[in-house]
Please model this.
Amino acid sequence: MASRVLGARVGVLGGGQLGRMLGLAGRSMGLELQFLDPTAGSPAAAVGELVVAGYEDESALERLATSEVVTFEFENVPVSAIKSLEQRCAVFPGSRALEVAQDRLHEKTCFRALGIGTPPFEAVDTWEQLQAALVRVGLPAVLKTRRFGYDGKGQAVLRTEADAKEAFDRLGGSPLILEGFVRFQRELSIIAVRSRSGEVATYPLVQNHHEGGILRKTLAPAPAVSDSLQADARAYVEKVLQHLDYVGVLALELFDCDGRLLANEIAPRVHNTGHFSIEGARTSQFENHLRAILGLPLGSTEIPEPCAMLNLIGRSVDPRAVLEVPDAHLHWYGKEPRPNRKVGHITVRAPDVPTLDERVARLERSIGA
Ligand code: AMP
Model:
C-alpha cells in the first residue's frame, strides 16, 4: 500500500475552495491532485492540475480514471459520471451515497429507515399535494426543492396559506419536499470519517450560526454538549456511514431541540462546518478525507482548545486587522468577492472560552460581520 500512496495521484471532481483545501493537505502528504471542473481558473487550480471540461466529458473522465483514487468535492456532480468512473477505478465516496445526498426526499427517507429523528416531511409534486401535506404537517412549514438547493436557495418558509401559494408558484415545477418548521435551540453538525477498512472517527459536535441560509460562524466544540448528546450524534452518523458503506468525510447537519437531535441533511464531502479543523483539530477534515480514501490510518479528531471559524462572505478583508488577533488564521480562496459568495474564512483559537469570545468579537468587528 505504502508505495502506491506516496506520490499517488488523487482525482477530484470539482475545483472550488474545498478542492483547494484538499489539495493543500494532499501536497504536504506528497500527493498530486488533479481536478475536473467546467470553470477555468477555479480556486483549486493553484494547488494541482485543473482539467477544464464538463463533468460528463468522456476524455476528461478517462484522464481522471488513471488516478489511484477519485473523489468529489461538489455534491451536484452527475451521478452518471461517478458511476462511469466506478467501472474504471476506485471512487470514494461511491455513487450510492451521492444519490441519497442529492435528493432531500431520499435523504430523509433514509434517516427515517435508520431510526434517526427528522422533522415531519412529505413529498410534494402538485398544488393539491401541497395543500394535503399542509393539513398533516401544519404551519409554519418549509417547502424545499428536492434537488440542487444549497445555502438556503430553493426553499421558502411558509407561515400562511398565501406564502404557500407564492412559494409553490416559485418552486413548483421541480419535485418538492414539505418539512415541518423546527423550533430548534441551535444548529449543530458532526463531521465523521470512515476509512476503506471500516475505521470510523468523529469530530466533537460543533455549533453553527446561519444568516439568510448561509453559514456565518462555527464554534468548535459546541458549548454545553452532554456526553449523551455527543453519543446520540455519533450513533446517528455511524448508522449513516455503515448503511451507505461510506468511505471519506461526511457531515451530518442536526437541529438541537432541547437535547433531542433531528437530522436536517448530510453532505457527502468535506464541509464548511469542518473548516475549523485545519488549525483547530489534531488532524484536519481534509487530511482525514485523503487518509480515508487512500486506505491509510485515520488521524486524531481531538480539538485541543476552543476554536471558532468565521466565514468571509461577499467582500474583501484587511489581513492586518485579522492577523493582529492572537492565534487567528486567514484562509483566502482566490475568488472575486460577489454578494453572498464565500471567499475565505478565519479560524481562531484560545486557551479558554471567554478569551475565544473576545477574539471572535474583535474579528467580527474587523470583518464587519
Ligand atoms: P438546508 O439547505 O436544508 O441546510 O437549510 C438551510 C437552513 O434553513 C438551515 O441551516 C436552517 O437554518 C433552516 N432550515 C432548514 N430546514 C428547516 C426546518 N425544517 N425547520 C426550521 N429551519 C430549517
